[in-house]
Amino acid sequence: MEGYKFPLGVIGQSFVELLVRHAQPEVNAFVWLCFRLDHGFEYVFSAAPPYVWVVLAGAAAWRFSNWKTASFCSLGLLVLWNQRLWSATIATLSLVLTSTVMSLIIAIPLGIALAESRVVRNFLTPVLDFLQTMPRFVYLIPALVLFGIDIPPAVFASMTLAIPPAARFTCTGLMQVDEQVVEAAKAFGSSPWRILTRVKLPLASPAIMVGSGQALMMALSMAVIASLIGAEGLGEDVLRAIAVLNAGQGFVAGFGIFVLAVLIERVASGCAARLGPRTGRSDHRSF
Q1: Pair 58, 70: CB distance under 8 Å
Q2: Residues near 6 by Cβ (< 8 Å), separated by ≥ 6?
Q3: Can you tell me the distance from the alpha carbon of 169 to that of 214, in angstroms, rounded to the nearest whole number?
Q4: What are phi and psi of 42, to 5 degrees?
Q5: Which of 155, 178, 235, 259 stands 20 to 30 A from 83 (CA)?
Q6: Going by C-beta distance under 8 Å and a sequence separation of 6 or more, which residues neighbour residue 242?
Q7: Residue 23 backbone phi and psi in degrees, to 5
Q8: pLDDT tens digits for 20-72?
Q9: What pLDDT is attached to residue 283?
C-alpha cells in the first residue's frame, strides 16, 4: 500500500499562480527591461556593417588574447557572414548580453552579501546550488506562464544559470582580499562602505571579471534551449536543422555558437588577467 504523497507539485503550482496574480507589475517591469536591453544591443550591432564588427572583434581578441585567437574569431565571423547567419548571430549575442547584464545586476550585490555576511552565505549557498543544478527545462514552465513566448522567458531561464557562478566568483574574490590591506584601510579611518568600494572591490575585480565571463558562457549555453520558447538566433537554426535532419546546417549554426563562445571566453579571461596586476599596484593608494 502506498503511503501519503506530499503535494509538493501542487505547492509549486500554487506559488506560480500566486506570482501571476500578485506580481504583475514586477513581471511587466522585467519584460520591459528585457525588450529594451535586447533591442538596444541589436540596434548597436546593426548600426555598422558586419565587416566593421569582424575587425573590432578580431582587434579585441588580439588585444586580450593572441593573434591565433584573433585570426580564428575573425575567420569564424566571416564564415557566419558568408553563410547568411549574421542576423542570427546578432540576435544570439544580443540575447546573451541582455541575460548577462541582468544577471550581473543581481549577482554582484548578491556576491557582496555572501562575502560580508556568514548568515547570508549559509542561507543562500543551497539556493545557488539549487538554481545551478536544476534542469534548465524545468524553468521554462514558470517562465512561459509568467512571461509568455519571446525574449523575456529566455532571459529568465538564462539568468537562473548565469547568476550562481557570477555571485560565487564575486564572493570568492572579496573573501580572498588580503586582510592586512583591509586593516590598513581601517587604520586610516575608512568607513566600511569606503573599504568595500575603494579597497575590496578593486582588488576583487579580476575574480569578478572571471565570474562575468562565466555568466556570459552560461547564458550562451542556453542559446538552443531559448529558441524553444521563441527566442531568435543561432539556436533557432539548430532546431530547424534537427527538424529536417540536416546535419550540415546544424553544424554551421553550432559552429557559430562555438565562435562566440571562444571570443567571449578569451576576451573575458584576458580582461581578468590584465586587471590583476593593475589593481594590485594601485590598491594601497585607493583608500
Answers
A1: yes
A2: none
A3: 9
A4: -65, -40
A5: 155
A6: 250
A7: -115, 25
A8: 777 778 888 888 999 999 999 999 999 889 999 999 999 999 988 888 889 99
A9: 42
CB-based contact 227:178 (threshold 8 Å): no
Q: Rounded CA gap, 177 and 175, in Å?
A: 6
Cα–Cα dist 89/69, whole Å? 19
Distances (CA, A) of 37 to 34, 82, 94, 151, 263: 5, 27, 8, 10, 21
Give dist(CA 103, CA 93) in Å, integer: 15
The pLDDT value given to residue 90: 92
CA dihedral 184, 114, 156, 243 (to 10 degrees): 100
Sign of CA dihedral 111, 113, 118, 119: negative
User: Angle formed by the axes of helices 136-147 and 24-46, to 10°?
Assistant: 100
Please report, to the nearest 10 degrees, the dihedral formed by the alpha carbons of residues 185, 186, 191, 192 taken in order. 90
* Closest C-alpha among 101, 159, 161, 171 to residue 130: 161
